[in-house]
């Protein structure tokens, strides 16, 4: 449910961007659009990807000035300025830019109520219209408040967890519904220390991954996440897993972006039922199959996922490569707790003009 517009006494006050001195607000300028507009096949992330690309190019060419505070109510004049902060994220609202501009302060407060952390403020940096529709991409930053303060690593970890939950749609931003409706398509552009998401997938409590490995795909996280089932099915076939063996994945971007490549896939092989340890010959077979599967692209269709790069085995799997008989080896750590039910990360179709 959304927040009520007429909330009484507010429990905490969202510091203004002008007070914090680091964030902009009141976006409304237009950024670049995807080719062909958003009239049909263009996904919402297309606009986000273009904005991110523009930000990188512009940041390389110019020294971006500090955002104008709330006193001036000026918008960030280009996408580059919108991405100057260390923590930047976005979501979609079915409202026009002009409608949102009238309620920018309230929107900032609502966001702060949902994900705000100590020593920080929320600043809406850019409002990107999606084609000729009434959908708008809201790009916001979380910046230190006061300006010279530091956000602790503990609170950054809590904020990262909140963002992860929003990305996989296990939760949603609860905004004032009468003003903003329902938010959707939460994405992260920048987060210090990187970000990891766990696509919702079937897994039982305390299952132990007995074979773990990493590899890199030159695709943004949101695209890989949308094809989680396809990726796992192709890998299971390509690695010749037994019917009772499943793959469990996590997705990481070292710069904290869900919309920019590359994506590091952390894959683990788990049993559908039980936690018994596979035999050493089976472990060695799995290790050899994974280590020698570069030419086979881990079973992935390269037209869908591109070429797999940087395959890296866990120390446990590397040990198995050279094991000839029964030796004592450390047991892998238990899997993190996850929902037992399969859940798909759906993006709504692009709004019609």
UniProtKB/TrEMBL annotation:
InterPro entries: DUF7036. The chain crosses the membrane at residues 47-68. It comes from the Eukaryota. Residues 1-34, 319-353 are annotated as: Disordered. Residues 90-181, 214-306 form the DUF7036 domain. Keywords: Membrane, Transmembrane, Transmembrane helix. Coiled coil: none annotated. Residues 20-34 have a biased composition (Gly residues). Residues 341-353 have a biased composition (Basic residues). PANTHER family: F20B24.21 (PTHR33826), OS05G0373500 PROTEIN (PTHR33826:SF9). This is DUF7036 domain-containing protein. It comes from Miscanthus lutarioriparius. The lineage of its organism: Eukaryota, Viridiplantae, Streptophyta, Embryophyta, Tracheophyta.
């Amino acid at each position: 449910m959304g927040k009520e517009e007429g909330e009484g006494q507010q429990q905490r006050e969202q510091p203004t961007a002008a007070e914090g001195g680091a964030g902009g607000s009141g976006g409304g300028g237009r950024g670049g659009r995807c080719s062909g507009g958003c009239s049909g096949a263009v996904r919402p992330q297309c606009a986000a990807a273009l904005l991110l690309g523009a930000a990188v190019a512009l940041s390389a060419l110019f020294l971006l000035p500090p955002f104008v505070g709330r006193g001036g109510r000026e918008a960030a004049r280009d996408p580059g300025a919108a991405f100057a902060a260390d923590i930047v994220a976005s979501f979609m609202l079915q409202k026009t830019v002009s409608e949102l501009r009238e309620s920018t302060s309230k929107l900032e407060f609502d966001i702060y109520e949902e994900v705000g952390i100590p020593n920080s403020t929320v600043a809406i940096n850019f409002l990107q219209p999606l084609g000729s529709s009434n959908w708008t991409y809201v790009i916001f930053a979380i910046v230190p408040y006061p300006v010279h303060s530091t956000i602790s690593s503990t609170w950054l970890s809590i904020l990262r967890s909140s963002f992860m939950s929003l990305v996989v749609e296990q939760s949603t931003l609860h905004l004032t519904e009468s003003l903003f409706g329902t938010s959707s398509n939460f994405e992260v552009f920048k987060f210090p220390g990187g970000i990891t998401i766990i696509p919702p997938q079937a897994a039982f409590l305390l299952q132990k991954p007995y074979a773990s490995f990493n590899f890199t795909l030159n695709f943004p996280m949101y695209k890989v996440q949308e094809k989680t089932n396809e990726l796992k099915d192709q890998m299971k076939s390509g690695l010749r897993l037994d019917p009772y063996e499943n793959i469990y994945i996590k997705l990481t971007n070292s710069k904290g972006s869900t919309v920019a490549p590359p994506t590091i896939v952390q894959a683990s092989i788990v049993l559908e039922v039980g936690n018994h340890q596979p035999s050493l010959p089976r472990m060695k077979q799995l290790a050899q199959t994974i280590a020698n599967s570069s030419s086979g692209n881990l079973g992935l269709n390269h037209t869908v996922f591109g070429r797999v790069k940087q395959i890296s085995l866990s120390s446990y799997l590397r040990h198995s490569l050279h094991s000839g008989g029964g030796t004592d080896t450390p047991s892998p750590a238990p899997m993190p707790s996850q929902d037992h039910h399969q859940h798909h990360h759906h993006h709504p179709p692009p709004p019609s003009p």
